[in-house]
Amino acid sequence: MNQKPFSRRSAFIFLITLALVSPALPQGAGVSDRRASQTSSASSVTRDPRMWREAMRIHRSAIVIDGHNDITTTMTNDNYDLGGDPPAPYRTSLARLKKGGMTGEFFSLYVRPWYVTHGGAARRTLDMIDSVYRAVERHPNDLLFATSAADIRRAKQQGKVAALMGIEGGHAIENSLPTLREFYRLGVRYMTLTWNNTNDWADAGRGEHTHHGLTDFGREVVREMNRLGMLVDVAHVSDETMSDALDTSKVPIIASHSSARALNDQPRNIPDDLLRRIAKNGGIVMVNFYQVFIDPAASQPNRERSAQLKAQEDEIEQRFKNDPERIAEEEDRLEAQHPLPATPISILIDHIDHIVQVAGIDHVGLGADFDGAVDMPEGARDVSELPNITYELLRRGYSERDIRKILGENFLRVFGQVEAYARRNGGHLSGQGSTRRIPPPVANPNR
User: Fold this and answer.
1) Phi and psi at residue 419, in whole multiples of 5°?
2) What is the pLDDT of residues 67-124, one digit of tens each?
3) Which residues in 411-431 are b (16+ Cβ under 10 Å) and which e?
4) Which of 164, 276, 385, 398 has the fewest CB atoms found within 10 Å of its own CB?
5) What is the number of domains present in the chain?
6) pLDDT digits (tens, 9 = 90+) for 98-107
7) Residue 162 is part of which domain span?
8) Cα separations in angstroms, 59 against 65, 163, 392, 406, 425
9) d(Cα 364, Cα 389) in Å, to the nearest integer?
10) pTM for this structure?
């Protein structure tokens, strides 16, 4: 371990000192009081100034990569310009990306399952790709369109944010390997094999388990992604699908926005046995910040909120039944008006700690899911607050070298290995590729 000004030993001494000078909780304090006492986050009055300066030094010099941001949906639906203020309840902007020290942001190309039954999944993906190009062309001094690990490093050197793209939901390729290749040509560098919906070739974690993992075509999708140099993303997939992807992939995989199931038993989180397999594969789990995924205490309030808002959400869905994008925006606004009880940033850091303990320091990163959910932990509510992550890691005794790995270097290693494998396999995107397609799902004739 690198010996830095705040080693594990000095961080431990700091915590003991803080405990001695902090007032004790009254006897019989409730769970909410105990949770509040744990919130000693980088935004709190107990923040140590010297440690904060050290955290900022590390953060500003590090490569910081976020594996998943859904602001692309608003950019596409509303022509939102990142140079302005984001429409409520969304929070991503150029100013906040810079304040947060972002080096590489993956703009999510999230295609709702509605487009499977009504048609147009690939076109929706193209529209979202265009919105990322529009942002880069509007802000050439701030954004750099990136398709490689080298591009991310170049963005850091130039003081820009690398804009990358990842498809969320394998149904976007409409069961066509040629379509997958076209998305790669346009700059897409990862694809989440499923969203919450099971598609024709892969089971989703929160969908029906009809295939028991990947079908033969699903395994061919994984192999083709390997050949192209596109990262295989197993966020959202079922455990069986994840296992099949690990069996099939010849290169490291990623989970672009998933957390640890051992700390919160959610199907979107990854169990320890698969964390260990991802480590053996050389891959990386990029931790999701969403409160419901990381904090067991958020589950019941979330269920209560859903029940409370059901009538209003039903009315929204009826009023905009032919406009899935408007439904989602209106429901996001409604949820934002009824936030969940606060989750301390310590709960988020616990997930990073757990993955480090189970999979190792080389296999964890950040995949916040900003603007894909409205409920995020205190001190990590949007991209501007990412330096608080560095502070909290430093406070727990992580070395500068290990913090840099978590912030971005682990992802760069994986990305580089995937690119190297593709180069070794010839680099002819279509000439060496399969033209296999399977019949698309039947579109709804009543749309």
Assistant:
1) -65, -40
2) 999 999 999 999 999 999 999 999 999 999 999 999 999 999 999 999 999 999 999 9
3) bbbbbeebbebbeeeeeebee
4) 276
5) 2
6) 999 999 999 9
7) 48-295+343-424
8) 11, 19, 12, 11, 36
9) 13
10) 0.89
